[in-house]
Amino acid sequence: MKTDYSTVTEVPGNKVTHEQMLRMYHRYRFACDYCEGKDVLEVACGAGLGLGLLAKRAKRVLGGDYTEKLLEEGARYYRGRIPLMCLDAHYLPFRSESFDVIILYEAIYYLNKPEMFISEVKRILRKNGILMIATVNKDWEEFNPSPYSTHYFSVPELEELFKKHDFRSEFYAAFPVSSKGMKAKVISEIRKIAVSLHLIPKTMRGKELLKKIFYGQLIPLKEEIEEGVFAYEPPTLISSKMPNFEYKIIYGIAWKEG
After folding, report:
1. Nearest Cα to 241, choosing from 132, 128, 163?
2. How far apart are the first and last CA of the chain?
């Protein structure tokens, strides 16, 4: 049976915390720096919340996802302004050297064979093309895996995956784990206990109640992430030689050479 990822994906109408919304904005604002005037493909785009922001910088943007329900949501909003298509990340249905930038955000851990995805990316990227991957940091003390995940990559593991396919790479991180204030520390400790006891709900909807209790008023997601709604701080360059314990989110940037 085909997995339905819509229950674990942020979609319009979901209510999220300020930091959760900031993380989403940060991903796409960071990608914009690499997409100026480029042909861009986002794999696992979900309902396409970040595609509109990318389209303001890129020459051309295309979104693809495995779950048709998510694509239908995006199609209702964009109304053909940005093409959307159903695809499997292991078999990308494009000619060789079709794109300058390929984005895979918060989804590499869902792939059964990530090596196949990287191989396909290498095929359809142009010379000096870029692959951008964002993933929650598995070495963050409060890390909580998704119920449909297959494997989460540490920074060294992700670098090794890139190297196997002759990509040159750099790694960045965002959202420091250090807590500020007693309330934040208490919430952090409660979250660690909940994660260890597998008490955190598995769906986005299920998590909303807990977030409201601990974080207060939540922000309803719109169909498109708006530019400039948050102050933007570029991610921090980090070492790829060791696991990272200082940040919640990891970015891997890989260049196709030759």
Report:
1. 163
2. 40
